[in-house]
């Protein structure tokens, strides 16, 4: 098999409050997303979300079902979104081919039986970061580029959070059941994302940090607003954020991150804000 996976169970705020560094990292951090010619996945019990990576090099890589799904094929009851953070790639969905370039996205709806990943140049392989959530309806497969995205510019250099939010797989751009994905790019000199921080009890979220310069790192903040914790992260790593948790980060340089969400509310603006002065 070219697919490997692990399962992460949900943790309560009370349980998480008592975790040390090793426990926080083993429960929430996804350290290795990309392996040559493999699909690596983490199945989390927060909204049955799956996050992972695909890096085809010398051969095509086929998306296979995994045991927790108890399904004959991966997308029998699921939808999938991906964003390419590597070289030019190709994704074949039931025989239809999509060229997916750097920072381009693809939504694949429920019921598609065959998904195949490939790179155009094995010396500069594609890196498909993928998210998947349970789905109740079959929506069409759709490629989304930054030109198609809903784009919002927020923050300022004075508060070190000047950033551009690219809403790629959201309800205003593409029909999905519950999955939403986008990409936030920080301007030079800015290091804070999603600040002021927030929670949204109706949705869980996963962050994938990339374009973190060599030798630099990201400090990801999580936990309840009055009981925060942190996880230090490297380039091309992801972190799971429970619905009850804040999710914000600051780094030693500017960077880009992909956010993916699932839950019962598709309203991007449905957030419970946390005043900066109230964080503990």
UniProtKB/TrEMBL annotation:
- Record-level GO BP terms: D-galacturonate catabolic process; D-glucuronate catabolic process; pectin catabolic process
Q: Which reaction does it catalyse?
A: 5-dehydro-4-deoxy-D-glucuronate = 3-deoxy-D-glycero-2,5-hexodiulosonate
Keyword Metal-binding part of the UniProt annotation: yes
Residues holding Zn(2+) = 198, 200, 205, 247
Per the UniProt record, which EC number(s) apply here?
5.3.1.17
List the SUPFAM superfamilies hit by this protein, alphabetically.
RmlC-like cupins
Extract the GO molecular function terms from the UniProt entry: 4-deoxy-L-threo-5-hexosulose-uronate ketol-isomerase activity; zinc ion binding
Entry's cofactor comment: Binds 1 zinc ion per subunit.
Q: What are the protein's UniProt keywords?
A: Isomerase, Metal-binding, Zinc
What are the required cofactors? Zn(2+)
InterPro entries membership: KduI, KduI/IolB_isomerase, KduI_N, RmlC-like_jellyroll, RmlC_Cupin_sf
Taxonomically, which superkingdom? Bacteria
Pathway of action: Glycan metabolism; pectin degradation; 2-dehydro-3-deoxy-D-gluconate from pectin: step 4/5
Cited function: Catalyzes the isomerization of 5-dehydro-4-deoxy-D-glucuronate to 3-deoxy-D-glycero-2,5-hexodiulosonate.
Family per record:
Belongs to the KduI family.
Name listed for the protein in its UniProt record: 4-deoxy-L-threo-5-hexosulose-uronate ketol-isomerase
**Native species:** Sphingobacterium sp. (strain 21)
Q: Which gene encodes it?
A: kduI
């Amino acid at each position: 098999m070219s697919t490997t996976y692990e399962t992460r169970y949900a943790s309560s705020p009370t349980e998480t409050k008592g975790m040390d560094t090793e426990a926080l990292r083993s429960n929430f951090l996804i350290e290795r997303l990309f392996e040559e010619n493999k699909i690596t996945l983490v199945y989390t019990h927060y909204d049955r979300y799956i996050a992972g990576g695909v890096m085809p090099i010398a051969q095509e890589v086929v998306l296979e079902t995994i045991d927790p799904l108890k399904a004959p094929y991966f997308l029998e009851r699921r939808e999938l979104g991906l964003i390419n953070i590597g070289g030019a790639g190709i994704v074949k969905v039931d025989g239809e081919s999509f060229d997916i370039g750097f920072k381009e996205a693809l939504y694949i709806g429920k019921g598609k039986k065959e998904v195949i990943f490939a790179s155009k140049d094995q010396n500069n392989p594609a890196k498909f970061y993928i998210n998947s959530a349970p789905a109740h309806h079959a929506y069409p497969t759709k490629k989304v580029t930054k030109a198609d995205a809903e784009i919002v510019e927020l923050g300022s250099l004075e508060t070190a959070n000047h950033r551009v939010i690219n809403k790629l797989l959201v309800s205003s751009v593409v029909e999905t059941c519950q999955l939403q994905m986008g990409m936030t790019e920080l301007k030079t000199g800015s290091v804070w994302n999603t600040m002021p921080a927030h929670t949204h009890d109706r949705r869980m979220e996963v962050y994938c940090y990339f374009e973190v310069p060599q030798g630099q790192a990201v400090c990801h903040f999580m936990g309840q607003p009055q009981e925060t914790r942190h996880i230090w992260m490297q380039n091309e790593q992801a972190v799971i954020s429970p619905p009850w948790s804040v999710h914000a980060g600051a780094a030693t340089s500017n960077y880009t991150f992909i956010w993916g969400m699932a839950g019962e509310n598709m309203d991007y603006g449905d957030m419970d804000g946390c005043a900066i002065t109230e964080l503990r």
